[in-house]
Amino acid sequence: MNIIQSVEVMRQSTPLIKPFKTALRTVYKTESIIVRIQTNDGRVGWGEAPATIVITGDSLDSIHSAIVNTFTPLLIGKSLLAYERILHEIHQSMIGSSSAKAAVDMALYDLVAQNCGLPLYQFLGGYKDQIETDFTVSVNSPKEMGEDAIRYVQEGFNVLKIKVGKDNLQEDIERMQEIRRCVGSSVKIRIDANQGWQVKDAIRTIRRMEDLGLDIELVEQPVRAGDIEGLKMVTDHVETPIMADESVFSPIQAFEVLKNRAADLINIKLMKSGGIYKAQIINHIAEEFGVECMVGSMIESRVAVTAAAHLAASKKNITRCDFDAPLMMLQDIVVGGVQYDGRIMTFPKAAGLGIVDVIHSHQSVVGS
């Protein structure tokens, strides 16, 4: 019958190997809500929502409350065969809470794909059966960032995502010069300013990096999220491709950015879009505009990253991936799911997400 029978909500907290530093925040551990949805035939779907207050506005408490008090009553007793109706109701039931919506969304897609007997990436489109991730260099001194970059390249990564936008512009330029000097010309380098630059400063800094021959593949979110005109100004005045990240949560925001040609690329994250359901719409809109997408993640475990990776592998228009967060964790809490062989990520043959179990500490069950 595929009827949703119970929703379990768990909290997990796992230290990072090294602090993750951006222009917006410093993170020392992953903290997230794990969701386990079970149907009456015994199948289990998994989802996850990390607390990323500075980006999504979602805290652990708000995510927990949204799932338990608002979404669970909409889920219990519903048939998976009407999953679009369920997802529509979830999105209509409250404003915001995109991370909580994403956790429920990925668990539902896990169950639907299991019901069809397909790995989720095949259910969603099946364009690729493996993907490649970059690795992020946190913002620190130029010397430390250069050393980190060398280590990640030695570990097999050939695309690096460099965090900048903190301190002053000259130091950002020095950071990039040092990293390019350390890793040579064969490694791809992406920059993520996390909204850390003013518009004219961004133009001047990116042009300076172009003049220095630093060969930057793209610059992600150089200016404030809400400044679409400023984002367009940067895009129009530099040669380096500009990627919108925090500027695009919803399909409507994606359409506005694309209609105005305010960015050359879009970074989709399930925690911003509210899950796979809306993320697919964003990607389809971008594809119609001829704009490629990246799929990235917050600081989250292999539960959420597995769901995002399945989406990324399923679509032709998703050409870049940023899924290094689980590699930053001191402990892997997931059994099954997407697997890493250095920078290459592969999928289990099992149906759905392929997640077998999640190690956790605190749990509450809602519905029966």
Number of helices: 13
Distance between the termini: 15 Å
Mean pLDDT across residues: 95
Element string (H = helix, E = strand): EEEHHHHHEEHEHEHEHEHEHHEHEEEEEE
Strand order within the widest beta sheet: 5-6-7-8-9-10-11-12
Query: How much is the radius of gyration in Å?
Result: 20 Å
Per the principal axes of the C-alpha atoms, what is the gross shape? globular
Strand content range? 25-35%
Low-confidence stretches: none
User: What portion of residues is helical?
Assistant: 25-40%
Number of strands: 17
Instruction: State the secondary-structure class.
Output: alpha/beta
Protein name: Dipeptide epimerase
Keywords: Isomerase, Magnesium, Metal-binding
Cofactor: Mg(2+)
EC number: 5.1.1.-
Describe it.
InterPro entries: Dipeptide_epimerase, Enolase-like_C_sf, Enolase-like_N, Enolase_C-like, Mandelate_racemase_C, Mandelate_racemase_N_dom. It comes from Paenibacillus alba. This protein is of the alpha/beta class and 368 residues long. Helices cover 39% and strands 26% of the residues. It is built from 13 helices and 17 strands. It has helices at 53-56, 60-75, 83-93, 98-116, 120-124, 142-154, 169-183, 199-211, 228-237, 251-259, 270-273, 276-288, 302-314, and strands at residues 4-21, 26-39, 44-50, 130-132, 135-137, 159-163, 188-192, 216-220, 242-244, 265-269, 293-296, 318-322, 334-336, 339-341, 344-346, 355-358, 362-366. Strands 5-6-7-8-9-10-11-12 form an eight-stranded parallel beta sheet. Strands 3-2-1-17 form a four-stranded antiparallel beta sheet, with helices on both faces. The radius of gyration is 20 Å and the shape is globular.
